[in-house]
């Protein structure tokens, strides 16, 4: 029989994502339901190492369900790669009697959690939360849907001015290593071109496609580029050389994609995944990435997915391209 836990921790790590707050709420309220004590670790792994830990009650998480960001705060923490620092974090957890942790975060958080599990067999369940959607073992991450909607609203507005001025806009979206946001917004905004890190792009071919479009009477164009493929400014400069009579502007959407009130979908995911991750942990089942598969909550062993790479659906790019011509 798996040992039940009486005290757990919850932490948000890496880049924030809209939906982290409802995920924290779900963990804390689930623990309260089972009579289990919860501690919140503030400022991500930095707070774990430096003892920024406080007790959270069901009441502490009132009024946060609709807020973007994370009320526990987060920090990039390269120091956590050092085993001595992980040891310090563990000592702090022990000080409060924390027997296991729900980690809410992205791919870096998953790797850091694996290190804690491998080093100290510390019980952890990970809830995938990142605007990038690049975590293997889950169809969606918390925050991705909100980020796509934020980018979509921004691009729709840019489309209005692009049409009025008959301009080409290069729009840079987030995605350091992947093009999930870019591929989704290209489809939902009808972008003429999408550039993502996973697919080699050819600026001459892109310029030729735009020229063809102009010959057919198209007057404005949206080129969506994921930051990890090339910067928007660089794409603009290269296109300007090849299309000298085209009025070209660039817009970098940046961190607005990370903020804002979580969408219904991000909140729903946060509620289901946070609650399941906490329930499993409390009941002695851990080492899981608690994500979704075909709309169902689906925990998978972390050590089976942490080395996999999640890929953008090429079929989606094909359809986006076909519909934008
Ligand atoms: O959270 C992931 C991400 O949004 C990437 O898409 C982006 O490159 C990065 O975070 C930016 O991180 P920071 O805010 O630390 O500069």
Automatic annotation (TrEMBL):
The Phosphofructokinase domain covers which part of the protein? Answer: 8-281
Q: Which organism is it from?
A: candidate division WOR-1 bacterium RIFOXYC12_FULL_54_18
Broad EC category:
transferase
Task: Indicate where this protein is primarily found.
Answer: cytoplasm
UniProt protein name: ATP-dependent 6-phosphofructokinase
Q: Quick one: which residues bind ATP?
A: 15, 76-77, 106-109
Known function: Catalyzes the phosphorylation of D-fructose 6-phosphate to fructose 1,6-bisphosphate by ATP, the first committing step of glycolysis.
Cofactor dependence is on: Mg(2+)
Annotated catalysed reactions: beta-D-fructose 6-phosphate + ATP = beta-D-fructose 1,6-bisphosphate + ADP + H(+)
* Regulation (activators, inhibitors): Allosterically activated by ADP and other diphosphonucleosides, and allosterically inhibited by phosphoenolpyruvate.
GO terms (BP aspect): canonical glycolysis; fructose 1,6-bisphosphate metabolic process; fructose 6-phosphate metabolic process
Instruction: Offer an example of a GO molecular function term for this protein.
Output: identical protein binding
Q: What is its EC number?
A: 2.7.1.11
Q: Per UniProt, where does Mg(2+) bind? A: 107
């Amino acid at each position: 029989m798996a040992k039940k836990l009486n005290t757990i921790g919850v932490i948000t790590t890496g880049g924030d994502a809209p939906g982290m707050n409802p995920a924290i709420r779900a963990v804390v309220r689930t623990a309260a339901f089972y009579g289990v004590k919860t501690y919140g670790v503030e400022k991500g792994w930095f707070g774990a190492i430096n003892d920024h830990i406080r007790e959270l009650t069901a009441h502490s998480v009132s009024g946060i369900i609709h807020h973007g960001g994370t009320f526990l705060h987060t920090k990039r923490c390269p120091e956590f790669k050092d085993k001595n620092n992980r040891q310090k974090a563990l000592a702090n957890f022990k000080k409060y009697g924390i027997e296991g942790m729900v980690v809410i975060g992205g791919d870096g958080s998953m790797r850091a959690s694996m290190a804690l599990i491998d080093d100290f067999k510390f019980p952890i369940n990970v809830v995938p939360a990142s605007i990038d959607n690049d975590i293997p073992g889950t169809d969606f991450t918390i925050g991705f849907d909100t980020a796509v909607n934020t980018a979509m609203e921004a691009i729709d507005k840019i489309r209005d001015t692009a049409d009025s001025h008959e301009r080409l806009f290069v729009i840079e979206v987030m995605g350091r290593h992947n093009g999930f946001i870019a591929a989704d917004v290209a489809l939902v905004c009808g972008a003429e071109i999408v550039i993502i890190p996973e697919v080699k792009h050819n600026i001459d071919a892109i310029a030729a496609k735009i020229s063809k479009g102009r010959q057919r009477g198209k007057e404005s164009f949206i080129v969506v580029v994921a930051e990890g493929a090339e910067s928007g400014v660089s794409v603009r400069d290269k296109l300007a050389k090849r299309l000298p009579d085209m009025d070209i502007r660039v817009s970098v959407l940046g961190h607005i994609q990370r903020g804002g009130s979580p969408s219904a979908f991000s909140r729903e995911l946060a509620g289901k995944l946070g609650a399941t991750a906490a329930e499993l942990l409390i009941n002695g089942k851990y080492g899981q990435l608690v994500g979704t598969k075909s709309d169902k909550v689906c925990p998978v062993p972390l050590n089976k997915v942490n080395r996999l790479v999640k890929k953008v659906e090429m079929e989606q790019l094909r359809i986006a391209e076909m519909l934008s011509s």
